[in-house]
């Protein structure tokens, strides 16, 4: 069974694993004060290229809830696309810290100044929460990538209205590869805080939070500890991020590799007559007609995004570990699913095995 | 300036005030254990007509957050219409207790089994909150009233899916007057918990919570105390509710009075060429063409509900204290606003003085 | 049965009730924007005598949780005496807003700079909460009153350490009467925020929050609304506080009246051979030997504070409504309880009827 | 510089690391549904020896806040020793989930039925939180170990009062080694939920939660996800725990190894004239007279527990990685510190370099 479910099904990239093995011995201080964490955060800060604070956390939901919980006062809420991961796939983690997510419907998963202003217009007095910041994802859960220009415009628009901008970078490496940019781009566009994702880009776990805005930095380690996000053996994160952000730009290269696999897949789909709807970074969204998705599901695991009258929109995710041969096998399976006579028979109408839940996949 | 902003601009009904004066002397136990609170809750329970627990709280937002905070476990959320008061006008009070409101778009402000099932279909595993209950308002914020049949269907549908039903009865008295029913209707339809609103129906403050479902009762006084909702001088609530639910059915009659005023207003609007969009209970929603709303705002305070291309939808609320003469003056003002030549000039395009925020009014 | 349980067993002071009756008619804006609330808050601000913001809330627990929830960031805690009301009698209301109360053991219920520093020494890094402020009660739950000098010292000590000072003034009127002072004293000593209690001093309900420190004012009405503490018919609070702080100094006089009753009681106890342990303001703590408390409980309701080998420490609370005759009857009952042969027999060892829970009374 | 600060300064045990390397390749399902996690939880459940649910989380604070947040309803609190880790070194993580920790002073860090009943006596009505469960640590933060008999008594006492018992097993392996027992002991004593610590016993990260009591299991994965405790690449935890609980009993043996090092250290201290105060499992608490601790701190890192008139109580922690030679070097350093003339001179009175904060060490 081929797996194109998500980008966290793999283990660590071999180079990251080697680093873990190489630095396993000896004693280190706990809670992120070890030499590896210091090295990793220094490397990341250097690449951000401006004054900032860097912290290493374990996972994406943890990072989102720790950051937003730290940034928001009780009566404040955060604006986010209705499809945002924090809104649909984190089990109310932000609400559990006491805060409302102000949901903004947007077909592309992207926010823009007009959408922000519409939301603000609905929140003008003490009978509504006070919007304090904007949550973006780069790449978005729907596969889109904000251009530098879009980010800059959105950030300056937000700042003019007293809002900060927080960017979920679970898939930041592929997004930066699309833009041909590096970490400094994000901060230079005005993003106040963001994280550079490790889990989906070569690490076993780990997200590197970058706090640019001085006001958002205060006492961040307290918030980490309180949310259970201050790892005792911080070296586990330090070693991985030090390696990912080492001189060979491993983290950036892995993002580009994932995109290359996705691009190959997109070409194959186009050639097969099912051009993908969106495939900017490492996620490919394609609508398969009729029962094709159900047939494909007998050979491939993927997430069903939505079901419509004409077919099923599915998500196929590539990672740094997806090789060409696997992509090509997937394309073959898609062709077989599209031309059922040549494939093993699947009873029409049978639901795909995976992704029985419409909506974004868990790791979107 | 006429005021049709809401139904909490008046003081207490004279009979309620008299009761407060009559029972002011002497000492009483605190925290709802006084004789008046015992009498009031016994009267209400008797009218509910089945085993239940009754508690007296101070206000609507307090009641909603105390009840929902008590009923929900941390990972659970409550389904509610997108226009629900808890969703748009309570400053994230439910989220501040740690819970997500699962918003359901519905043009009428009413939920039905199909809408519930659609929402449930989006919440099927541990990556989403677990819907545990349904929030209804009777009457709804958009002025509608659930029939007994609608309530019964919705409750049995909910129960079959393991959901409880909680009903916000800030305007329950007018709603019951529409239905020609009494408190027993609500419980007999299967509603698990609800409150009978006092603030908007003759009291200075106070909402009487009725817990029918045994599982939702556990330790409710602890929750009240923790949320600051256990009034020290409980007699303030006890005296008022004992009076409202005394033999003369004051509480029911006041709801009917508010509806009568709204009906007179609705007739007047119809006769003036602007038939109201909804006027089931004591709220009248009417769309005024062009700048008529702006002109009306020079003489009348009201909430603007939404602005469209053809005009402005406004809300006019009547209460038990709204007399015929005042309604007739309002109708005159509406006519004047509709035929500007006969009225004091208002610069066209000027925004209404009140209700600058589109959306539901605060007390909706 | 005589009742000396607490100071919230009475109704409203007649003058307050009269004001409610006098101003019941007519329409007013909701949510504290009515003319009475504006008048009340202006009067209180004038008496505070410096720039401040005044808000009217309903009850003490509600006020404490709204204020502390607003002032504290998630990782911050508040220092308080172990006997503080928020620590022992508010059902974890502060914790329910997400914050730790750092408990400081203190026999008198009073804090001082040394105790504060000891607590700070235990909270020095991100593995502990960050103490952000100090909770005081004036009068304290144990009946003590901070002198102006004590308050000033404590506030300047706190400020030097980056802490704000919040003062629970549920019994502020009696405390100020002890000091011969007015509201301006509290602010002039450096207290950053406090409330002037109405519930225990002549009102049916209501606490007036005074925010002196500019940083603690931000968006306070949002916090009120979110906690269910923004009363719809704000006039109920406005009318009462406008009357209490009218030119005749009713609020101050009621505090002095309660103290006078307590002083008469204290003299009587002393003359009866049981000098009270503490009786600074309107609460009298006295230890009754042997089974005297049990005997007294057959005729008087009161709270048992603690039980020891030599006797039982009880709390007797006087209010503005406690007249001399009632105090004298209480003293007679105490004498009878101390000399059982002249009283109706009580089986020795029987527990007092009320106050079966050792610890502070609920309204302490 | 020797390090006896804690038991999380080491990397992974080599066998655990080898397993991570061996199973790094290939794709696995995310969020704990991978084959390794299934294997690990099955092995642990088998060793518990009764019906239970096992979940793998990342760290100790995360585990405590996820479990207690899941088990408690809003108005409920948990009883814990004043020295409990959740009370002193988790930055109010439990309070941040909305719950009070009811602190019980106990010199040994151990709870017993009498202490529990005293606490319950202070929490009898809705003005206090409702105690719902008991938090224990095994071994305790002060180095003690509950015997099976003590646990059994405490659990049956708790159950008789409607309380559950939750046991923090960050150092469960050393504790079980002391008792010569295995995981089945904990459940057989009646503990309702506990975790078997990996971080301090050979893993890079990870705590295995065992839910025995059926009522505490409900929807646990929802709680994990909401708290950011459901690791995307669950294999990281699965592989480690599958290895630790493999047939060679690695997890148990590592606990015994840590104890053996501590026992060697205790003997050495005794022979040096400073018999340790407590050294039941892998933590050794010893009081060094005069300035000896300050001198020792020039060569060894450790935590200062408390400072008294006669000397300084320090904590020395051994782990599975502490070899005999290192222990012997530490003993030499202690002797040198005790007999300063033979050692490099240290200015008397200088504070130890590490552990400047009295109280339990962070990882206690």
Structure description:
The structure is a homotetramer of 364-residue chains. Chain A has 364 residues and is α/β, with parallel strands linked by helices. The first copy, chain A, is built from 14 helices and twelve strands. The first copy, chain A, folds into two domains: 14-247, Aspartate Aminotransferase, domain 2 (3-Layer(aba) Sandwich); 251-342, Aspartate Aminotransferase, domain 1, CATH 3.90.1150. Chain A is 38% helix and 17% strand. In chain A, helix 1 crosses helix 11 and helix 2 (35-48) packs parallel to helix 11. The first copy, chain A, starts with a strand and ends in a 26-residue tail after the last helix. At the B-C interface, helix 1, helix 3 and helix 10 of B face helix 1, helix 3 and helix 10 of C.
Produce the secondary structure layout:
The structure is a homotetramer of 364-residue chains.
Chain A: E1 2-3, H1 14-22, H2 35-48, E2 53-57, H3 60-71, E3 76-81, H4 85-88, H5 93-96, E4 101-104, H6 113-121, E5 130-137, H7 148-160, E6 164-168, H8 172-179, H9 183-188, E7 193-197, E8 207-211, H10 220-226, H11 235-244, H12 250-271, E9 283-289, H13 292-296, E10 300-301, E11 303-307, E12 311-317, H14 324-338
Parallel strand pairs in A: 1-10, 3-4, 3-5, 5-6, 6-7
Antiparallel strand pairs in A: 2-8, 7-8, 9-12, 11-12
Helix pairs in contact in A: 1-11, 2-11, 8-12, 12-14
């Amino acid at each position: 069974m081929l797996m194109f479910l998500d980008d966290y099904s793999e283990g660590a990239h071999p180079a990251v694993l080697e680093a873990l093995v190489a630095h396993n011995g000896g004693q280190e201080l706990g809670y992120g004060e070890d030499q590896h964490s210091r090295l990793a955060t220094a490397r990341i800060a250097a690449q951000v290229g401006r004054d900032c604070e860097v912290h290493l956390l374990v996972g994406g939901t943890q990072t989102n809830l720790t950051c937003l919980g730290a940034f928001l006062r009780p009566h404040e809420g955060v604006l986010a696309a209705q499809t945002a991961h924090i809104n649909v796939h984190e089990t109310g983690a932000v609400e559990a810290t006491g805060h409302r997510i102000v949901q903004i419907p947007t077909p592309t998963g992207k926010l823009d100044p007009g959408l922000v202003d519409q939301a603000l217009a609905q929140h003008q007095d003490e009978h509504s929460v006070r919007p304090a910041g904007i949550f973006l994802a780069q790449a978005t859960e729907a596969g889109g990538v904000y251009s530098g220009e879009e980010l800059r415009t959105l950030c300056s628009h937000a700042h003019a209205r007293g809002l900060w901008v927080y960017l979920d970078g679970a898939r930041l490496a592929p997004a930066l590869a699309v833009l041909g940019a590096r970490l400094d781009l994000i901060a230079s566009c005005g993003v106040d805080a963001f994280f550079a994702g490790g889990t989906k880009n070569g690490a076993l776990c780990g997200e590197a939070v970058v706090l640019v805005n001085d006001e958002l930095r205060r006492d961040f380690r307290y918030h980490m500890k309180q949310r259970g996000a201050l790892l005792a053996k911080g070296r586990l994160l330090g070693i991985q991020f030090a390696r990912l952000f080492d001189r060979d730009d491993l983290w950036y290269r892995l993002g580009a590799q994932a995109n290359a696999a996705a691009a190959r897949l997109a070409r194959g789909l186009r050639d097969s007559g099912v051009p993908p709807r969106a495939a900017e970074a490492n996620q490919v969204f394609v609508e398969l007609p009729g029962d094709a998705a159900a047939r494909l599901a007998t050979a491939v695991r993927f997430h069903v995004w939505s079901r419509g009258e004409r077919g099923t929109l599915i998500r196929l995710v590539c990672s740094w570990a997806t090789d060409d041969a696997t992509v090509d096998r997937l394309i073959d399976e898609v062709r077989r699913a599209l031309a059922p006579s040549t494939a093993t028979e699947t009873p029409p109408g049978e639901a795909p095995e995976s992704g029985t839940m419409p909506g974004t996949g868990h790791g979107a």
